[in-house]
Amino acid sequence: MSTPTIEVSNVSKSFGGVVANKMVSMKVEPGKITGLIGPNGSGKTTLFNSIVGYHPIDEGSIKFQGKEISKLRVQQIARLGMLRTFQQTRIYSKMNCVENILISVPHRTATFSDMFRKYPAELTDKAEHLLEFVGLYQKRHLISGDLSFGQQKLLEFAMALMNEPTVLLLDEPTAGINPTLINGLIDRLKRANEEFGITLFVIEHNMRVIMNLAEHMYCLAHGEMLANGTPDEIQNDQRVIDAYLGAH
Amino acid sequence: MWDNIMVLAAAPVFNVQLILDGLFIGAIFALAGYGLALVWGVMNVKNLAQGELVIMGGYFAYVMTQLGLHPLLALIPAFAIMFGFGWLVYKIIISKVIERDLFTSLLATFGLALVIQQGLNLAFGPEVQTAQSGMEIRSIFGGNVTVADIRVLSLILCAILAGLVVLFMKHSRMGQAIRATSQDPRAARVMGIDTEKVYAFTFALNAAICGAAGVLISMIWVIQPFYGVPHSIRAFVVVTAAGLGNLPGVIIAALGLGVAEQYSGFVLGAEFQQATVVMLLIFVLMWRQFQMSKNRQVVQ
Amino acid sequence: MIKEKYLHAGLLVFGVLAPFLFPNYTVQISLLWIMILFALTWDTLGGQMGYNSLGNIVFFGVGMYISAIVQIGVVYDVALYTSPDGAALTGNFAPAQYYTGLALGILAAAVGCVILAVLFSQVFFGLRGPYFAIGTLGLALAAGELVGAWDYVGGGGGIALPVFPSDPKSQGIFFYYLCLVSALATYVFLRWLYNTRFGLAINAIRDDEEKAEAMGIHTKRHKTAAWCTSAFFLGISGALFGNMTGFIEPLEVAFPTITFGIFMVAMALLGGKGTLWGPILGAIVFHLIKEVTWTYLLGWQWIALGTLIIINVVYFQQGILGWARDKWPDLFGLTVDEAMSSGSEKRGSS
Ligand SMILES: Nc1ncnc2c1ncn2[C@@H]1O[C@H](COP(=O)(O)OP(=O)(O)OP(=O)(O)O)[C@@H](O)[C@H]1O
Ligand SMILES: [Mg+2]
Predict the structure, then answer these.
(1) What does the DSSP 8-state code read for residue A157?
(2) Closest ligand 1 atom, CA of A44?
(3) Domain boundaries, chain B
(4) CB pairs below 8 Å between A and B: how many?
(5) More confident residue, B214 or A111
(6) What is the ipTM of this complex?
């Protein structure tokens, strides 16, 4: 088998007394869509943060394409080609949508003098196509902070695509999106995976979405990895059902 | 500089003098520092006019002496009037910037600092003043160390004032409301606390504490319309070093700062005393940043 | 929207002709150009990048001193010059010596400030938000105190700079044009800069630095370069101002933190921070108000100024241009595009 894109082994992380992740191990295979579920407060976002270098982990190892990254910082990890979106959507709120996309070009190979280049017409075109891809083309000259929450989520997704990451970590991509648009979003996520070849690792509360999307799933509960398997296996796993229904 | 260090080594009593003077002054820094921490913690406003409030208080004592009265008598009116002034400032300025980004409140209070400085300059002129208390100066250690009675008295008054404020915060209704608001303003509002009033009171209390501190400063040290800036910087040094809601930390940091200033003034020369305060500020900020960066985080 | 080219032409014509149209106000108008430079360079960090510095004045003062040392140093021993015996030397500069010294001095000021900015960046950009503002304020205050205690550069007593080798009127005009050129150069450079990737990157840092980091933007590099840009032009302005005044000392002339230092901020805010024209507009309005009302305020000027800053910050923070943008968004291109997709737009336009 090929090296996993992300390999987390025995990672623990606590905040003061709260143990958010306890000996968590998991893998994200290249080219696939992997899902992560778990009740509120089970440590999903914490795991994301640990992977992308937001905070130091207490113990364990995190590898990206076989390379240890648990000591690297956010920017270095992002430049390796691992990107995340935020649960509380984050965009550059005083810039317009096109600018938001343009500034998200990959910075992996950016040299010092690249800072002072202009954007070639191809990039502007590409930015507009991506905005069209997420359905924001008409609003492209508006200040992004004035968009609705759902539209900002779509914009953030388009920004991530512009960055051409190897793997994209999405924290609840459908939260706050109008149910009628969710199917469209699922479709776009799948296209991003198939057409652009981006490996996806998705946190999602909406079971219908994640069942539809993921090929392999993990379930966290109380900071521990409870189960993993195909969507069907997870769906029928008694422990997972208990975790969701049980009083936590 | 080297000579001065040798003096300290040869005659250790000089150290006693420096440390005592540092503690007397530092105790007053603790008051202004506590006020800043209060306002910072409760309403997240970083008040750059803190030093100006102190200097303003100092002029109450100066006016008392001009009237032929004892400067200590200024303590009550300074406290009361500065309380009112603080309330007014809150209503006119602070309440408008409290919800905005932090730079706004910083800059607004900086503007306020300019206005107060210049107002004092117009009213009292740019001369350096001190409020003569006419109290005795005693010599100890065979005349090598002098202690002015007023300094001892000022230290005692500092302690009393701080004690009163702590008691007030613990036991009065308003004090409890202030603490509740600082922990979670929204929850406090839900519980029926009028946070607007709490904020106004907090800022006013801070101004009053600063006013009292100023009265003491003017008696044991000097005041001048433009001497507020270093006091503001001192308050920031103290709070940054101690952190919010940490009264013992504030006291230790303030006393340490007072002593450090005395030493640098003696060893490096008086012209470095101010520079020391500012360098300490930068140093404390850097140190905090270093602490945070260990957690891959930055000073927010 | 007024076409920018008319603004450019208007400013240029005014700039070139001003010393002849208003010969009695050459100094004030020179100062106006310096103010424009101040506001523009402050805005690079404060408005465009969201790092509100209260200590940019430090580069002004350092540039002034570097230039002075170089100008003196090309001819005399600086320590001798600044000693009490050196007082007679100020007029002893031949024109060739003077102009060489000045050219080298300005260059050294600019380069020296850039180097300093690189060093400061290492330290100060770890501080965010209000901590950056307070830290840089401390920096400016410390600089004034330290230079005041450094006898080699004249200490608190200051230095008299080499005397201009001609009459005061030509001196005024000579420095007027240098101020004009440096302000225009600042404008042209920043205008170009904001149109490159750099402009978007520092805007991104302003809007959400954590997001910018998470997207892999080289934030440190951009922040350092932005401060260097400010420092470069501020260093030049300091060198020029020192020579216009003829006498420099640390607290009032070189590191005037609570006057020039805060004017920078006030002007950029007044005009509208984060825009290219806002700081220019702010500087012009501010300087005009200040110069016109100053003498009538009878000692209340500074109070009026502090009040103006408070009102500006508390009640009118978006500034003149920000207000205009809220009022007439269409003029600023904030519109919904009717075309459904990039494809349909192309079809429509062909
Ligand atoms: N920075 C932090 N400081 C202290 N505790 C934290 C921090 N971040 C997370 N926690 C705690 O860690 C636990 C896990 O939080 P996390 O955000 O990872 O949950 P989650 O699975 O993403 O939940 P949700 O589905 O609600 O987003 C929670 O108890 C939370 O309170
Ligand atoms: Mg979460």
Answers:
(1) H
(2) 21
(3) 2-299
(4) 9
(5) B214
(6) 0.89
